[in-house]
Amino acid sequence: MNQDESTSGYFVSDLHLFSSRSTGDKIMPELRSKVRDTHTMVLGGDIFDFKWSTHKSDAQSVEKGIQWVEDLIAENESCEYHYILGNHDSRPEFVTELEMLSRRHENFSWHRYFARLDHCLFLHGDIADGSLNHAALDSRREKFERKKKKSGLWHVAYDMAIHARLHRLAVLSIREMVVLRRVKEYVDSIGHGESSGVTDVYFGHTHIELDGIQYQGLRFHNGGAAIRGMKFRIVETELRKPATVRA
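Above: the chain's sequence. Below: its structure in token form.
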């Protein structure tokens, strides 16, 4: 497809790359293909899983993560890339590298909480875990980052849980309506609700696949998670070219 003919943008989150449970590597051919044929790619957080990384050190994980993003940018230098932090990839060292990356590439931006593009709002979704203000979200992410990286028998135990689908059961116990209500409250609180012109909200984190679910005047989208035994998809958007970034 010619770049000028591209009418769709894409949103992808929760690849959990570097984790032994991730199936993210398997979707890379599809992701690269979509990147080459689109004008906007939004990376919605937890693209990497530093807590459960199988790399030897945090430094190596961060280095590999930045190289992954660099390689993706190289697939289509005409594409606009937006990276939204998640709770598994908000490590300060990584954020520092993302800022440097944005200085090297004019078509790359990173966002701590959300990105508003045209009539679409993109966020990771971990805001729904607790208080809806950003200070509380920062605190939760900081506590998460301070937890020691899991290794050894922890990985074995978690692999067994994934194999037994226990992780899926835990995720499905989260009521979809509760998640939607909290996300809706958040988008209203930051001034990007329906009255601002937003029609579609894209988020990850919950690992619950949602395909344009209508709720209180908005459509909600979630691609699930690239984790063994879970549903996952790269979500297509209707962003214009170029998409207008709104504060």
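The chain has one domain: 3-246.
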